[in-house]
Design goal:
The structure holds two protein chains of two kinds. Chain A is mainly alpha-helical. Chain A is built from five helices and three strands. The N terminus of chain A is likely disordered. Classes of the chains: A mainly alpha, B alpha+beta.
Chain lengths: 117, 914
Amino acid sequence: MTDINARALDRELKRGSAELLILSLLDARPRHGYDLSKLIETRSGGQLKFHIDSLYPLLYRLEERRWIKGVWVEKPDERRRRIYRLTPEGRRVLADQRQTWAAFVEAVRRVTGDDHA
Amino acid sequence: MPDWAPHVRSRLASLRLSPTRENEIVDELSQHLEDRWRELTAGGASPDAATRQALADFRDGDLLARYLAPLRQARAPAVVTLGAPAMRRQPLETLRQDIKLALRMLVKDRGFAATAILTLALCVGANGALFSIVQAVLLRPLPFADSRRLVVAYDAFPGAGVERSSTSVPNYFDRLALTDVFDAQALYQWWRYRVGQGASVENVSAMNVTPSFFNVLRVSPYRGRLFTEADGTPGRNSVVLVSHAFAQKQAGGVDGIVGRHLRLDDRTYQVVGVLPESFAFLSPEVRVFVPLAFNEEERSDAQRWGSNHESIGRLAPGATIQQAQARVDALNAAALARAGSLKSVLENARYHSVIESLERDIVRDARDALQLLWASVLFVLLIAGVNITNLSLLRASGRIRDLATRHAIGATRGRIVQQLVTETTIVTLLGGAAGLGLAFWGLDALKKSGLWELPRAHEIHMDGVVVAFMLGVSVLLGVVVGAVPALQLAGLNLSSMMRNEGRSGTASRGARHARRALVVVQVALAFVLLVGAGLLLASFREVLGVDPGFRAEHVLTGRVNPLQTAYPDDAAVRSYAMRALDRVRVVPGVEAAGVSTFLPFSWNDSSNVIVPEGYVVSPGEPLVSPNRLLVSDGYLEALRVPLKSGRFFTPNDTDGAPKVVIVDELLAKKFWPNTNPIGRRVYSPNQPEDLAKPGPTVTWRQVVGVVGAVKLRGLIDGEQARTGAYYIPYAQQPERGVGFAIRTASDSATVLSSVRRALATIDPELQLFDVFLMSERVEKSLTPRKTPMMLALGFGGVALLLASLGLYGVLAYQVGQRTREIGIRMALGSDRARILRLVLREGLVLVLVGVTIGFTGVLALRGVIASQLYGVGPLDSSVLVVVTVVLAVASVLACMAPARRATQVDPVVALTQQ
């Protein structure tokens, strides 16, 4: 992936594929928001970065859609943290979308490749 | 460590979150910022720098609020995202989002949007204008209560060439007994009255009606009362009802006119009522209604076979036209049985009465032409739809990658279809709205042009039904136009298509076939329309080529109506006409002048049975009732009607001179096929017995001349024209209506004012009305053909343009797609001429297929247009050839630009291009 910051792609990712990214990250295990943003950033080699003001609205949206569920976890002497996990519904959506995963990759490759044609 | 809460809270302020929810979000985001801050300081950043950097993750001030706003927790509906199933979202919000996106796409793709909107505006506009007309004239019920029950009853003598006559007074009175099938019946008669006195005299359109007339139509008076049965008694019918518009202009106005007196011709009438503003029967020009009153003689059996009143009725509840027809047939049979010596004459004329729906009868002459035009304009709309579908297919194939990407990241096919349909529907709705404006304008223009004097023309306006029709058509088009490419995409494997598109750079075979098929459809439809328009044009040319039998140029015509009081008898009327002619003839610029009771193309026609001496009627042969014209000397000369043999009338053919007659060649041929008519005698029967053996009361007239046949009712006369015409000297048989025909040397307009002055010197009260140049009358008679022909040509032109555009679009796109292939061909040695031929052939094959299909369409539809044609067959070969050539030339032009572009492909560039 090159030049992920290309604006059109950025928008597209945040709208569509970002949901997929988050679902797949939560598939492995439950995580909190900061954890998710770090994971995305490090795994994309710093190219893909979620800002706080787009990450949380996205999480809340997925929650409203009942694809993920957040629960408050409280530890002594710490601020409570909200941990998100995948719901059965979310798992189904993820499975659905993974079927078109190859196409997705191809699409992203084509879109980004096109920018440099 | 900084307190993050105020930073977060200030960014949530605008959202109206519940306090609990807001606290939760503040907590969660604060934790995030804190984690970040810790990480930054652990990495060596100063606390201040770490704070600044952590907070920088909030970009523009309100981005968080904006992203959160669509969420339900912010008490707003959820945001629409591409790449997720749409089922959960509220449809309205989805639509709003779709519309936003669609508008953005359309602004980006202005070329497509503008072309589609313009095309549609034109077509929807034409459809709207025409549908307004069709709606008012053919579809909307007449503006009377329960109007479907209104019928007309008329007599017909098809054997004598009269398909539609009116009816007689005794027939009407007999039918009044049929109360089981008729609720009410009435007679009416078109009339003109001179209203007022002295200088303020005006000629107004009027109707003489039986008092039951308004009862049949179920009209209530606006002021005053309607007619009562008593008003229909001879001697007591000096009352009048006036139209709202008329009352407004009279002394007293609408509210004060009732009770006042009005002078009509030379009698005084009392105004008893004002009709509602909305009331108009057949024509809004009718200003006054006067009751018909019949005496015993007029009601007697002797008057039964004269037809001079129109009859309308209202069917009884539950009664059908067929039942009414059967009852009237029975009455007619009884009357025929009493007809004695006339019986066989009437039977030969195939006398019968027709009961017909008033609505149908009114539009009798206009229906076919209107339906044909409506069909053509729908064809044009269809072509436009096909054109836009094609454009939208082209556009969709350019967006396959975009759509496939969306599909890949989760948008369902339904969602993509919905998005495309929203886009096209917005386009078609915008086009429809613009079309609405165009339709208003077009309808206005058509109305000003006289709308070829359609029946119910005054009712034509754009109503809610028309607007709904137009917007409905627009939406329907939008859905279809959007759904075709969308379904085509949806029917394919989008992800494989995306790869396919990526590799080859060409559209899928399916899409290409679809586009080519659509071009073929367009060409076929355009061909059919052009052939239709061409046939109408060819017919019109034929009609223009018809010899009217007279020279219309420089002939001034107009009428006067000497009234009973001033001119009580024949002698007075005759003397007026002769003196008037004397004065007119000396006006400078006048070459010849005459009077006639029946000016050609003026509708004040008259005909009467005439029989030649010794003529043996063959069994079953109907009597002929040729056109009868009472004309002075100078009349035939003024119109330059050619004299075939004998002589014209002279000033010596006076009342006291031998009774003479001039016949036209049609009549001469019928009565004396093998002998010279000059010197032969004819008579008009005064009673049925005269037919078998002319009695002593008949007037014999000797034929002194034969003239050429003159078209009297239009260049294409009906059946009646074929029976011919005869002319009687006006001085020997004067009638009250006097029409002048004045041939002028040059400018008729200046002569007209001199003629008016000359007539005023004899009687200032007798004003010339119905003033037209003869050539104007001819011109006017052509409007019912000319307007539809012009409209059809216009539609044909639009169809041609659209089809050419469609062809151009498809070829241009294909050349663009095949740049690489063309480059290879050229690199391999193809010369430019060959490339040109390649592209041209591609286009012309489509045209050829389209024309072939169009031709089968023409074959199938030839019966439909036949009734509108004159002098050309529905498969006229020259029209077919011309249309094919026109279409071919337009197609070559449309193909030329893409073909030339193809020849300009630079192989090097084409091959290195990805």
